Amino acid sequence: VIQKIILMEIGKHLRKKRNEKRFSQQEVADYLGISQRTYSNFESDKSTPSILQLKKISELLEFDFLKFFYV
Length: 71
What we know:
Layout: H1 2-21, H2 25-32, H3 36-43, H4 51-61
Helix pairs in contact: 2-3
């Protein structure tokens, strides 16, 4: 249950930060070298980014990705 809550927070947080920085999903996907659909799945919690992908996203969107690992 805790893992699902954390995963739900990731998608919501990614969308919020991306919108704050005014990036499109396509721009973030291009930065990661993935499709826009794959990135969209991260934001909608249909899939979860790897730790390395999450780190790259956090660098682009300027947030501390480690916050998702504190329980």
